[in-house]
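User: Hi! I have a protein structure encoded as tokens and I'd like to know what sequence might fold into it. I'm fairly new to this, so please keep things simple.
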């Protein structure tokens, strides 16, 4: 009889702890909303970072292309080297 009473009491206490209260549900909903907001903000920052990286890569490419044009001789011209003795 003692074991049965103890098991019944244990089962009853577990059933009360398994139920969520309204405060707990509200706190979980608020936490979910904060998490969703943070995810959306992170996605926006990632998009901005990708855009900035792309602009930087394009600018660097243009600068390197201009540098390469400086080193190449102009088309249609010849260069000669004259050595004086």
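Assistant: Happy to help. Inverse folding works backwards from shape to sequence: for each of the 85 positions I chose a residue that suits the local structure. Here it is:
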């Amino acid at each position: 009889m003692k074991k049965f009473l103890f098991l019944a009491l244990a089962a009853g206490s577990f059933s009360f702890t398994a139920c969520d209260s309204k405060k707990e549900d509200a706190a979980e909903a608020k936490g979910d909303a904060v998490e969703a907001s943070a995810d959306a903000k992170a996605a926006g920052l990632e998009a901005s970072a990708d855009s900035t990286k792309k602009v930087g890569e394009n600018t660097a490419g243009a600068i390197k292309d201009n540098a390469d044009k400086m080193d190449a001789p102009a088309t249609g011209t010849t260069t000669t080297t004259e050595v004086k003795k």
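A useful reference point when you look it over: Residues 31 and 37 are 10 Å apart (CA to CA). Feel free to ask if any position seems puzzling.
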